[in-house]
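Section 5.1 Outputs to date
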Amino acid sequence: MTTHVGLTTRAFGGERIFLPKMDSQVEKTMVDVSRRFGGSFKVEEKRNWRGLIQDWDGDVIHLTMYGENIDDLFEKVDLKNPLIIVGAEKVPGDVYKIADYNVAVGNQPHSEVAALAVFLDRFNERHVHEDYSHPDISVLPSTRDKRVVDNSNIPSLTECYEMCNSMDEELMKHTLSVLEKSMELHSHFGGHLGLIIAGSMLHDIGRTISHEVDHGVIGGDMIRERGWDEELARVVERHVGGGISREEAADQGLPRRDLVPQTMEEKIVCHADNSSGGEERFHDLIERTISAGYEKSAERMRELRDYFEKKKERV
């Protein structure tokens, strides 16, 4: 159970757990998880648990089925730097006396880990913690497939600049404008920062070979040739216009695959490409897309703009 307490604490943004006696296996697991998935999480031994509680600079919360209702607590108290005590079946009686608050997540027996998760969810105002620095791998949100990014296969900004050396001055200026717009969108809507930066820098790399509608697919294949992550290749190849459907791709002589942006990273780079020059340029792109016979792509450009505008209202 102790490992699950650590994993839950970390997942909700906690920095460490204290144990009355060090468990080397728990420590090993938490160090390995932090290395692979990011962040720095500590497991510390505190044999003098009474001293830890009494000297804590913040609120001390003891989770127990015998405590006051969790809803009542959050209605009356603005908790500061909480130390949360999660015990097994036999918690020393002194804990009830020296804790600032004994809190029940329902007055029925259930998992201590579940109680911790519910409490941290309420404390975080039901915002999921996502800021884990320097992970080896990142698991990204998805409605269907598993999206796991090996961050060692995402090029650095320096590597992106090196690949962009063959761009002319005008294309490089546009690329940096798209990067700036993508960073603005990322600040509001999140997404994998490394993918968004690399995707913005390399979204038009295919234009060093072709300025036709196939430049997105060409760019995606250039990414694959370098052995970089498939998620990045899809960001690059799905940025053209408002995206290209499987049927439209076949009609235009492109590989018959879905080239419509689906993930947050793909949508951000696609919309940044369309909107980085301001409202006037955006409407000009719409008109040019329609004139070229791509009405559906133009409609998807509008839909993507509306998607971000509506989403921003909810943030």
